[in-house]
Amino acid sequence: MGIFSNIKKLFKKENEEREEQNLRKDNNIQEELEEEKNIQDSFKEEKKEQEDNSPPEIIKQDNLEETKEEFQEKVKLYDKGLSKSRDNFVNKLINLNNKTKKITDEYFEELEDILIMADIGVNTVLSFIERLKKRVKSENITDLDYLKEVIVDELFIIYVDNSILTNKLKFNESGPTVILFVGVNGVGKTTTIGKIASQLKNKGKKVLMVAGDTFRAGAIEQLEEWSKRVDCAFVKGLEGSDPSSVIYDGIKKAKDEKYDVILIDTAGRLQNKVNLMKELEKMNKVINSLIEGAPQETLLVIDATTGQNGISQAKSFKEITDITGIVLTKLDGTAKGGIVLAIKEELDIPVKYIGLGEGINDLETFDIEKYIYGLFKDMM
To answer: 280 near 182, Cβ under 8 Å?
Structure first.
């Protein structure tokens, strides 16, 4: 019918293809039985050799190419990483539908409570319920199984409707790409930089890490440790020094030594927004004076386990600097995975990465279809 059915088809595609291949194989065998045995054996050997030497099938997702194996591994990661949210949210939704015989105002009230508890956000939930009621009325929906699909469709629409969002990083075509990381202390900002550095390096990028947070005790050492772990170059200054001067030195090094990407850490002292705004303004001026159009990305790192407090942080940072994307860490550690939808609805900023585990490879480029599948798979 809509998004729900399309996502089911997407993730059932491999099974359907396997069944189709088996059917074709049966037909071929039927035809081959009519041939001489020696010709049949020769044909089978040739066919097996061709299959063994054929390249893996490619699935195209957002103009990126990944093998079926890679695609399925990422689906499993979303599945596992969203298990707490699924148990908290979807199971309650399933129980609500199982005990309900008729779509009433009481049904919508319970649904509203479930959505709010999933941390989708009160304003988002209220507008969602109103839109859902209108659709139920206009389409004369009485079937609860059908309504379940409509709910998934409408939640998907919250994220994608009336906007063009991309999860891709913007790269500089004529020099080093600068990615600035902002966020309060303790959200996993430094770890995120390390993980993204590792991903970019594995893609063949020459990466430089710059310790722009010169105020927090241990921040420089923590980022330096990550640079050693992922084998990336590192630029630092003295603790308490002017972060803009450190960034200046880092960018000069990147330009002179032909680095592809510069990842810059920043301080997260949000309690004094005026000072932080001035600091970020100075950083941006220094960066832009050395590389036109930079920074290409300013990524805000939010801890998913902080829920609506994370949304408040995002609103505050949005007031003082231009945010191009969100990195949502520790999504696997919360039962309130609906925060992804709240971020989009309340901030209109795309989520570009989500953290689905503690491992270095558990920071994933955000994919709305895999997210919806991981959240609602028990309903599919």
So the answer is: yes
